[in-house]
Amino acid sequence: EIVLTQSPATLSLSPGERATLSCRASQSVSSYLAWYQQKPGQAPRLLIYDASNRATGIPARFSGSGSGTDFTLTISSLEPEDFAVYYCQQRSNWPQITFGQGTRLEIK
Amino acid sequence: QVTLRESGPALVKPTQTLTLTCTFSGFSLSTSGMCVSWIRQPPGKALEWLALIDWDDDKYYSTSLKTRLTISKDTSKNQVVLTMTNMDPVDTATYYCARILDSSSAFDYWGQGTLVTVSS
Q1: Looking at the predicted structure, is the pLDDT value of residue B43 above 90?
Q2: Do A33 and B105 make contact, defined as CB atoms within 8 angstroms?
Q3: What is B33-97 written as a DSSP string?
Q4: How far are the Cα atoms of A59, B2, B39, B56 from residue B113, in angstroms, in the given order?
Q5: Which end of chain B, N or C, is less surrounded by CB atoms within 10 Å?
Q6: How many CB pairs under 8 A join A and B?
Q7: Backbone phi, then psi, for B91, in 5-degree steps?
């Protein structure tokens, strides 16, 4: 099973700051990596697919990068609505799919 | 417009079998490449992938739970059903169904989730 490790577990930042979230895979997942945002009481929302492609309707301040084992989700300038939990997910060894443990982005 | 909605019991007793139904619209599970998965999330914890069924009726399960899970589809009703046997309190979670294309890395549409509590 491919394990995804997200860091940090919690990130405390202020609106307007830049957020950098990391996801590391235990083995190469090529570019088969996605990022989701989840707010309390809501289903996850797809942000990024195939490591760097923004999903429909996702603001340009969200960007994804990386390939192989190291991936980054960057939020260029935090808006109040961006404070949430973020998950990465891989499907490299289809169809065995795994998620990371999440990064909580909280207001400082 | 793609939508998915989960339904099933909110409360089950330990050792019982859970049956959840995902009813979807806006796409057909007979279309090549189309897949539906079940994913769960215990309160305050991370997401866990459970099972997937594809347009060709191929079925795949989480390695750790495969002995307890069965996934099936009714294409005419636009439904996917998940059964989980021998429920335990640690199975208490919100259960989601979601769509994924076999050519994509991501679940692009999700249901709102249904909370299942396992308690006597």
Answers
A1: yes
A2: yes
A3: TEEEEEEEE-TTS--EEEEEEETT--EEE-TTTTTTEEEEEEGGGTEEEEEE-S--GGG-EEEEE
A4: 25, 15, 9, 25
A5: N
A6: 69
A7: -85, 0
| Confidence category of residue A15, pLDDT binned at 50, 70, 90 | very high
- Within 13 Å, how many C-alpha atoms sit on residue A105's CB side? 28
Q: How far lies B69's CA from each of A81, B50, B61, in Å?
A: 37, 8, 7
Which is it for the CA torsion A86, A91, A93, A96, positive or negative? positive
Angle, vertex CA A15, rays to CA A10 and CA A19, nearest 5: 45
Q: Do B105 and A32 touch (CB under 8 A)?
A: yes
Instruction: Give the model confidence (pLDDT) of B4-42 as tens digits.
Output: 999 999 999 999 999 999 999 999 999 999 999 999 999
Q: What is the identity of the amino acid at B29?
A: L
